[in-house]
Amino acid sequence: xxYHICGELCLTEAHTAVIDCSGVGYKLTISANTAAAVGHKLxxxxxxxxxxxxxxxxxxxxxxxxxxxxxxxxxxxxxxxVGPKAAIxxxxxxxxxxxxxxxxxxxxxxxGKANGIGAKTAARIVLELKDxxxxxxxxxxxxxxxxxITATGKLSDAVNALLVLxxxxxxxxxxxxxxxxxxxxxxxxxxxxxxxxxKQ
Length: 200
Hints:
Elements: E1 4-13, E2 16-21, E3 24-30, H1 32-38, E4 45-54, E5 59-64, H2 67-76, H3 84-93, H4 96-104, H5 108-111, H6 119-136, H7 140-143, H8 153-164, H9 169-176, H10 186-199
């Protein structure tokens, strides 16, 4: 229903932002990372990407500072047992890059650092999202190497991480081409690729 909301940031509290758009104040539930990204812009014009959660007892609007965080949230809530609140908890503890790297490197301990996320839930997130990638891309994403560079486990994980964040396989492959991954940890590799993608 809403793709994004753009207006004056008139209030920020713990996990909450209110954006005044043409005289209407929209209350959004946000992650700690989004709060950190926009909190210093009180009184300024901001844009948050949105997700509208409709339940029998409530309608809640969630806001995200980037499309990557929005995509990570949407992927998380497809996992059985992970609702919007749990997804926000994870994205308050981890950046989108850290989340994607954790999923693709099966780092359940990192996912489990989020408040309310136990070992079983963390394991389910890794299992279901990796499975989802395999199903969506016919298993190719797990083994594919970016064109022009050597296939390694780290590059394969980086491609998959960008898929988790909503990019296509071709976009991920192009963004990683030419980046020297030998001296970079996975998260830095993902961040470097994202910077390229954001310039396009």
